[in-house]
Amino acid sequence: MMKKEDIKKVVLAYSGGLDTSIIIPWLKENYNNCKVIAVSGNVGQADELDGLEEKAIKTGASKLYVLDLTDEYVDDYIIPTMQAGAMYEEYLLGTSHARPCIAKGLVEIAQKEGADAIVHGCTGKGNDQVRFELAVKHFAPDMPIIAPWREWDIKSREEEIAYAEAHNVPLKINRETNYSKDKNLWHLSHEGLDLEDPGNEPQYEKKGFLELGVSPIDAPDAPTYVTLDFEQGKPVALDGEKMSAKDIILKLNAIGGANGIGILDIVENRLVGMKCRGVYETPGGTILYKAHSVLETLCLDKMTMHEKQKLAVTFGELVYNGQWFTPLREALSAFVTKTQEHVTGTVRLKLYKGNMINAGVWSPYSLYSEEIATFGESDYNQADAAGFIQLYGLPIAVQAKVDGKSK
Hints:
The chain has 13 helices and 14 strands. By secondary structure, it is an alpha/beta fold. It starts with 8 loop residues before the first strand and ends with a helix.
């Protein structure tokens, strides 16, 4: 059992946002003026990292680590999830698979610094507390975890802002634009304020609401074509230019965002039991999922594809529920990797005002045979179908005769 007096040094998952900013002075007030080591995992939140060190130190942290996790996040978390076709209730898991990646880095710093505890700013209502803590348990099962939202008397974001103002914590937000957001190179989420009422239409055309793109209404009147090359299910080139998966995602974000692609408004079922409404922007990811799925229609056999689609639901739930570091997720990833051996080829999509239209797909491993499928002459013997139907329908015919006797 953790005793407060034993806590001399902590490592804090630090974003520089409202929650983690006020946690620093709160920790010092409530945990013996302990030393706070701030750790920010860079998973592509871009300008949110600007001035972070100065802010952390000014707020009371001893130092700040900024870990560049962008390549690891893409290669070890995003791409395996995309290859699985995994999502959660249409949500492409942008916050979900970033958390285990960040938590892994957090534990590494905690062990390096000899910290007595790890601290996070997740609320007791959300999913992220579970994702962070399950990952910590995997890498450091005996490490104490402090979650201020489960301890302090602060009940709302308004009270957080008041606390920040009273403790001279610098804030970028104000009371009117206080959406709860999470941003990385894969997505941006919006929650709170007017979005808490599912009856309110999101303000897509209002300047500043969407950050990764535009509303389909404001997208160009002419379509944009994109071509993606895959090798064993991994994206390797965009419009014929070879580049890393990370760079492909970043470029697709710009292209997709400009065409109003990847905006999702859902009421989802949170792990902790409540329903929650959120708006997600995932322009590049939405294109990537679509292109990969189109290529699989050529390269996967029927039974493999159907089984993979079933397991994608389980994979998505595991990621959403914070169970990345589990034997089942690893086993499913091994299955997915096997299915991707021949998912190699090229997909062309036409992007137009929020829509993605198939515009061509090619693969050297294509299982589609125009010669067999054609409505014209082919070597396919249509008379063979009679025997197939006779055998395939045999159980139905037998059942009908049995039913007829019993009437």
